[in-house]
Amino acid sequence: MSTPDIEHDRLVRGKAPVDRAFLASSAWNYGALFAGILVLAMATTALGNFVLNPLTYSRAQQVAAADALAAGHNIAIADSNIDWRALRRENIARLGETPDIVIFGGSRWQEASSDVAPGQKLYNAFVSNDHFEDMMAITELLYANHRLPKTLVLSVRFSTFEYLDRRGAWWWKTFAPEYRAMAKRLGVTPHPWYDTIAAGKWAHLLSLDALLGKLEQYRDRQTLWRVTDALSDGTLDVVGSDGALRFSEARLATETADYARRNATTMAALHRTTRLKVDPALVVQLGDLIAFVKRQGVKIVFAQTPFHPVYFAAIQGTPYHEDLQRIEAELDRVATTAGAAVVGSFDAVKEGCAEADYRDFNHARMQCLRRIVAQALAPGTSHRRGLPYVL
Predict the structure, then answer these.
(1) What is the DSSP letter of 305?
(2) Which residues contact 129 (CB under 8 A, 6 or more apart)?
(3) Which strands, in side-by-side order, build the sheet including 341-344?
(4) What are the C-alpha distances in Å from 99 to residues 74, 119, 122, 216, 340?
C-alpha cells in the first residue's frame, strides 16, 4: 500500500518516490569514503616526512649518526634543519672522552669548529633556536654522562629568557626530559609538563609543503645523510666529529658580503619596533645553574656573538636596541653575582668583527667566532664585556 508521502511524490512531482533511507545511507558512505581518503593522505604525508627527515624523527638513524661522530668520522647531511637536540643527546652519550671545552649556543655558534681552540679538545654542542631551558638541558646531558668539560662556554641571545607564550620556536621541547631533570637538581620549578610537550615537532609530519620540499631536495641531492671523512662537500653540509657545522660549497657561494649587508638592512628594518620581554624567573634560575656548574669544578663563560655591524648600527636608538641592552645588563648582573665570566657583546665594532666576517645579519663566520672564543679562553678571564681582543 502506498503511503501519503509516496502518493504526494507521484502526484506533485510526477516522479518515482524518493527513498530517504537510501539517500541517507549513500551520504554516509560518501562521507566515510572521503574520511578514509583524507586519513590515507595524512598517513602518507606523515610517513613521507618521517622517512625523508631521518635525523629529526628516527632515533635509529640518530644513533647511527652519533656512533659515526663518536668514532671520529663526520656526517654529510642534505639539510641542516634537523633535530639537533636529539642528535646531541645521542652524541654526548657516546663521547669517548671528556672535552676540554664545550661550546653551547644557537646557530650563531654553529661554525665554531675545533680550529677556534688549537691544541684543545673542543666539542660544539650548538642547537637551533636556543632558549634558557636548553642551557639547563645540555648541562644535564653533560653532567649525567660524566662529560662536563674544564670550560663550558654558554651564550645568551635576544630570546633566551622570553616568556613561553611569546616564543615562535618550540624545538627546545625536544630537551624536555633533560630540562626537567636539571630543574629537579637545582630545586627550581619547571614549566608545567603540558608546556613541554613537543607537539609542534610531530604535527609537522602532516605538512604537505614540507613533504614536497623534501622530495625536491632528495631529487637534487640523491641522499639524506651519509658518513664521510671529508670536512667539506659541494652540495651537502658536513657535521664534524667536533660537532660543528660546515656549510656546502654551493651555499657558501651564495652568502656573499653583499648578501649579508642586504640581509642586515632588511632585518634591522623589521626589528626596530620589536619589543623583547624577559621572564625574571628564568633569570633567577640562571644564577642557580651557574652555581651548580661551578660546584662541579667547571669554569663557566658567557660568550656573546655580535650582530652584523650594519644591522647593529641601524637599530641604535630603537626600542629593540634598548631591550637588547637590558638583556646584556641582566646577564652581567647575574654573572657578576654568581662569579661567571662574560665576554663578547652584540656590537661587532667593539669585538673587532668586520662586514666580511658575516653570512647574514646575525651569523658570524669563523674569523669573528675565533676572536670571541679567544677571549673566553684567555688566562684569568673574568668580566670583560666589550673589550676588543687582538689575536
Answers:
(1) P
(2) 106, 107, 169, 171, 172
(3) 122-124, 101-104, 151-154, 299-304, 341-344
(4) 17, 12, 6, 39, 20
Average pLDDT over every residue of 8-21: 54
Residue in this structure with the C-alpha cell 629537579, named with its chain if needed: 184
Do the Cβ atoms of 306 and 345 come closer than 8 Å? yes
**What grid cell was written down for 246?**
660546515
Residue 376 identity (one-letter amino acid): A
Do the Cβ atoms of 384 and 343 come closer than 8 Å? yes
**Spatial contact of 63 and 89, defined as CB atoms under 8 Å apart:** no
- Please report, as a single letter, which amino acid is at residue 245: L
Over residues 166-213, the pLDDT tens digits come to 888 889 999 999 999 999 999 999 999 999 999 999 999 999 999 999
Give the model confidence (pLDDT) of 89-139 as tens digits: 999 999 999 999 999 999 999 999 999 999 999 999 999 999 999 999 999
For residue 36, what is its C-alpha cell? 578514509
The identity of residue 11, as a single letter, is L
Domains of the chain and any CATH numbers: 62-196+224-377 (3.40.50.1110)
